[in-house]
Each structure stands twice: as structure tokens, then as C-alpha cells.
């Protein structure tokens, strides 16, 4: 490909991941977004008993959101699964659909939910995320280029944050300071279907939200190009203002 830069594609999915166990990622949210034109899928993370954090591009055209919590599966019987429907959304005021800057969105439930072993909020970060840090990407997206569609099981993969300078080698000037890129071993990472899903790190037995899945390379999910996320930390103040989280 020489000097031709990878184009960006909205989306994400987990490539080369492992299947999550029940309760392993209790903040994981599966979101079916209904628009005037149909329904599509995104991921998200539970912030407190009434709010889910996802990507702005996921909910931009959304009219109704069906949110699944408490389960690692999308279908089949699971007594831990809670399904909620809402139309309440808040999109970051500076979100740009063309550049994907400020790709941060929030969904609000009509009533507060109850926490249990399978439904727990994720922690918001208190510091800037460094380069070369090991982190975890999760999602229900397809697992390879040959098999389109969602997987029924939540998957996770270990990835490493890369510097924005390194990420610009793939995406040129489309990478901004408020974005963070991750790369896995070989071609592991996120791909189509996992937009809005969290990038997280684990500290003191808690999951901390450090990124929102935003874009992937148009070279295909199994390319070695890094996956793009919106950094969570620069938006913590805005998120707290909107949600009332202390």
C-alpha cells in the first residue's frame, strides 16, 4: 500500500478474543438502536443506575434504544439478563460525524435499575491514559472478515495503547488528541459491531473506563492497523455534569 493511509470506518468488533464468563464484565451493555431506517447494534458501559456511556455516532440517528444488561449473551434464556427500552439520549455538543471528534454519547433509563453480581457500574478514569498500557477491549461484534454479523457471546481481548504519533502512521491527520488507538498481538483488536463498547483497565479489582470504541480501518478487521477509541478522561467533567455522577 506504500504511503496510502488507511481510511477509517465506523465500527468495531473483537478479533482474536476470548469468551467472557458470566459476571466478568458486569458493566457491559448491548444496545439495539432503532432509527427511521432500521435497527443496528452498538455496545456501551453502565455508568450508574440510570446512565449508559456509548459512542455519539451510535445514537446520533437513534429514536429508541433497547439496552441489555447482566448477560454475556444476546439470545437464549439467561435469568440474569435485564432488558430496558428508552428514547432518552444526550450527545456531546461538539460531536462531529465527519471527523468523529468528541464521539461521546449517553443513554438514560426512565427509572433507576438495581445492581447485583451481574450488573455493576464501571469506574470513570481519574488520570490520563499513558501509551503502551495493557488494556481490555470487549464486544459482541463479528470475529473475522469471513463471518459477518454479531456473535451471541461477549468476547474480550487484551490490547495495548499506542501513541497518537504511531496511530497517525495509519490514519494520518485524522487522529486528534482526544482519541486513543490500541493494537493487539498480530491482528487482535476491535472490529465491526463493537462501536460504543468500552476500553477498560483493571485496578484494585475494579474496571476503569478509558476509551469508547469509535472507528476501525477500512483495510478490514484483520489488518494490523490500530483500532480507534475516544479517550474517556477528557470528557469526565461533561459526563458528570450530564449524569449527576459525583
From TrEMBL:
> Pfam families per the record?
Trypsin
| Keywords (A to Z) from UniProt | Disulfide bond, Hydrolase, Protease, Serine protease
Domain named Peptidase S1: which ranges? Answer: 14-244
Leader peptide range in chain numbering: none
Q: Name one GO molecular function term.
A: serine-type endopeptidase activity
Q: Which GO terms describe its biological process?
A: proteolysis
Protein name (record): Brachyurin
* Species of the source: Asbolus verrucosus
Q: Top-down, what is the taxonomic lineage of the species of origin?
A: Eukaryota, Metazoa, Ecdysozoa, Arthropoda, Hexapoda
